[in-house]
Amino acid sequence: MGHQNITEFILLGLFSDEDVKVACFVVFSLCYVAILSGNLLILLTIRWSRLSEQPMYFFLSYLSLMDVCFTSTVAPKLITDLLAQRKTISYNDCMSQMFYAHFFGATEIFILVAMAYDRYATICRPLHYMVIMSRQVCYVLVMASIIGAFIHSILHVLIIIELPFCGPNQIDHYFCDVFPLLKLACMDTSLLVIAIITTTGVMSILTFVALLISYIIILSTLRTHSSEGRHKALSTCGSHITVVFMFFLPLILTYVPTADSVSNDKVFALFYTMIAPMFNPLIYTLRNTDMKNAMRKVWCREKPFEGK
User: Fold this and answer.
1) Which of 97, 133, 246, 305 is the one with CA 20 to 30 A from 70?
2) How far apart are CA 132 and CA 134, in angstroms?
3) Contact predicate 83/22, CB 8 Å
């Protein structure tokens, strides 16, 4: 089949109002700078400090990296298109953007699961923690996240490149995603829509439920801990739970209902492509003493000699 006579798509973007576009150009540009600087700050702080030895921060550095990559597949085009007259994207670029958005997004989901597993091991199996979460296990979990995300993304791309596109070529979104593209195909895609809702939607829901269950187990285990231990565990778990909710709820709302709700999908997508990655660094640093201390040591060069 293939994509017949369409070589490029036109992205309709978020808004049609010109004044709103200019305001959003400024806001989104600032958001993107905040996402890059905040996540790179976390990434470099962890890599340059002793925190990288701890599995939780090892995963957090990868989460920050995924945030930067994920947002960078979508944000630059979204920002430049706000001021552009013709918002076109070539067929190949469109497929690439869809692949990378799904790849980095899915890797992030799997890393959040690995982080929940780490929290579970810390709190529920403290005596076996060093064995359960050895550095080798951490690398295996990251590799499994990447491979799982690659399979998920490539399947989406393989579905889309088989579709015939014979016009119109206007995508009602600000980046190339599966549902808006399925709507443009000149064939009946209702079965494919159901298949994608089932795979991506169910994957999101199952992961979310698994994360919630793991936290319920963790919180019930915490009752036996001392108040100080409980407070520390709750603060790290609290950060993680906040991130999970911010990322998963819009994702589930996008992929679980019918594929007709694209106008809402654009707003939900904004949450997991721009808003969650911007707040992640704040959530992880403001509530985390270890992170704040590491930042002081790395960036302010405080206490260079521990023996003094």
Assistant:
1) 133
2) 6
3) yes
Of 244, 250, 243, 248, give the one whose Cα is nearest residue 266. Answer: 250
The DSSP symbol for 259 reads T
What amino acid is encoded at 185 in this protein? A
Question: Both tokens of residue 147?
Answer: 């491979």
Report the chain's terminal Cα–Cα distance, integer Å.
Answer: 72
Q: What does the block give as tokens for 277? A: 């990655």
CA 270 – CA 43 distance, rounded (Å): 23
Q: What is the pLDDT of residue 302?
A: 54
* Pairwise CA distance, residues 146 & 104, whole Å: 8
Residue 197's pLDDT is what? 80
Both tokens of residue 235? Answer: 């603060």
- The secondary element (H helix, E strand) that includes residue 58 is helix 55-83
Measure Cα distances from 192 to 35, 181, 195, 242, 246 in Å. Answer: 34, 11, 5, 33, 28
